[in-house]
Amino acid sequence: MTLPVLGLPEISRAATADLVFAAVRDALIAHAEGRTSVPPPMVLDFPAHSGDCHVKAGYVEGAPYFVVKVASTFASVNNGVMLLVDATTGAPAAVLADEGKLTAWRTAAAGALITDAMTPADVDEVAVLGTAEQARLQVEWLRKLRPLRRVKVWGRRPVAVRELCAVFAADGLDARPDGLDGAGCVVATTSARSALPAEAFRSAIHITGIGTDMPGKGELPVEVFADALVATDDHGQCLDHGDFGNAVRSGVVADDVDLPLGAVLRDGIDRDRRSVADLTGIGAADAAVASAVLDRLRH
Amino acid sequence: MTLPVLGLPEISRAATADLVFAAVRDALIAHAEGRTSVPPPMVLDFPAHSGDCHVKAGYVEGAPYFVVKVASTFASVNNGVMLLVDATTGAPAAVLADEGKLTAWRTAAAGALITDAMTPADVDEVAVLGTAEQARLQVEWLRKLRPLRRVKVWGRRPVAVRELCAVFAADGLDARPDGLDGAGCVVATTSARSALPAEAFRSAIHITGIGTDMPGKGELPVEVFADALVATDDHGQCLDHGDFGNAVRSGVVADDVDLPLGAVLRDGIDRDRRSVADLTGIGAADAAVASAVLDRLRH
């Protein structure tokens, strides 16, 4: 048995932004329409090494492969592989040794797609919470969908805030270490266990949260959900361990107010209404991106 | 990044019966003592291709690797791979492209260990329910632990029963297509959704069930659990989707009567009492066997 292992250089060549955006968009819409299989993820914890490992599986109906993804974070270093399996025979087809990059890109693409779809078209300023990889990627990928003029960065470590501002400035953005103040669009990317005060979000017409992926985490103050149009990438997951679930448990919103992200992408919304998108990451997006990458590498 | 993929020939050389028995025994005892991490498995169904895929993850505390196993069965053909991940760094260490064989062997080893531990020492006749790979393996691996003289085979297809009897006869066993009648020890290996009548098991002092791995399956009549000493490989899994759970839901036994298999292997039991062992397969056994195989291949 020869099982090909494809490394990051090959994967990077295949996974263009167009490919990733298209695959993620299709997967989110398919998920909203019930055309995906996504069992509840598995989590293993390794507290002695500040590590955890998330295993996600997913399948988009009609796709040639289903995907099992193993994504670990140890001492803040992401790693992982995706295994593609033939959905008609059950035979392993390939391993994408992507070092966690496909997850980073599909997360960036999903966040950017929904931030763009829910934020008024004239907003050209975004604030990011957090200074790690996703803070950078969310802005970079959003810029592929709409022009941005200014970025505000909020983080707990001033050095990291200045460094990220320098990266954005080098890319031609007006980058400011200003926190959230006055931003019309906020993208929250931290794995925080406590939220900023609701006051900090008062100018935001749209908020996207992508950092809350486990019970006990929560980066958005529950008040931002009140009276907002709410979209979730997976109703059950967001209720279980997303910021949406925190808001429901605190009584700020009912547990059935959310729309599926895919329905928002497919049908659009009234973008002048205040909105919050909660993303916890779905295996169907992994499956769609990995399938598209393997398909491109094989043809 | 180079991720080694080890194929079945290498794996087969490393995975001796001694290695598999020792790893499975240690894993079952560790599991009984709470020294393992085993998240609930994931299942994906592919009804159009008579397929399903089970994803199991497991870790035995202190081991160098944790393991994510992808095991598929499409049109009765088993396949699969195991991914080993460094438990101190989260980095992928190797893929064992074992085509499902390590699962088959650890299932055979677990079944044989517990059948041997719970069956009176003088019993040298075993009946197997089912005619597929595990029916053969359960007998072959039990013979590595105790001498067997006679095997009775029960199956729904007479041709398959005769073929399996011929295989056993070629191995020097007195093999009979007799069904269960009179057998003191029964090993049930089918994925049946309906059970044989309890009457068929009336001579059995010990029954091991290894075939019930999903809700809706059940190969043992619930009556066999009444007043029996019951052992389970994982209390929660067996309650959720094992034969034990079927017996509990039908009211034949209380949901807390079971002992962990690992405790039986560690401490022994009174083998003159009627007993039933329910095995649903645990990720910790996969982890232990795969770790031991990789360790042997690297040293």
Task: Explain how this protein is built.
The structure is a homodimer of 299-residue chains. The first copy, chain A, is an alpha/beta fold and 299 residues long. Chain A folds into 2 domains: 5-104 and 284-298, 2-Layer Sandwich (ornithine cyclodeaminase, domain 1), CATH 3.30.1780.10; 110-281, NAD(P)-binding Rossmann-like Domain (Rossmann fold). Helices cover 34% and strands 25% of the residues of chain A. Chain A is built from 9 helices and 15 strands. Chain A has helices at 8-14, 17-32, 101-118, 133-143, 158-170, 235-241, 243-249, 261-267, 283-298, and strands at residues 5-6, 36-37, 42-46, 51-60, 65-74, 77-86, 92-96, 125-129, 150-154, 174-176, 185-188, 206-209, 229-232, 259-260, 275-278. An 8-stranded parallel beta sheet of chain A has the order 10-9-8-11-12-15-13-14. In chain A, strands 1, 2, 3, 4, 5, 6 and 7 form a 7-stranded mixed beta sheet that branches. In chain A, strand 3 and strand 4 (51-60) form a beta hairpin. The radius of gyration of chain A is 18 Å and the shape is globular. The two termini of chain A are 21 Å apart. The model of chain A has no long low-confidence stretch (mean pLDDT 93). The A-B interface holds A 1-3, 5, 7-8, 37, 39-46, 49, 51, 53, 55, 57, 59, 66, 68, 70, 72-74, 77, 79-81, 83, 85, 87-92, 95, 97, 99 and B 1-3, 5, 7-8, 37, 39-46, 49, 51, 53, 55, 57, 59, 66, 68, 70, 72-74, 77, 79-81, 83, 85, 87-92, 95, 97, 99.
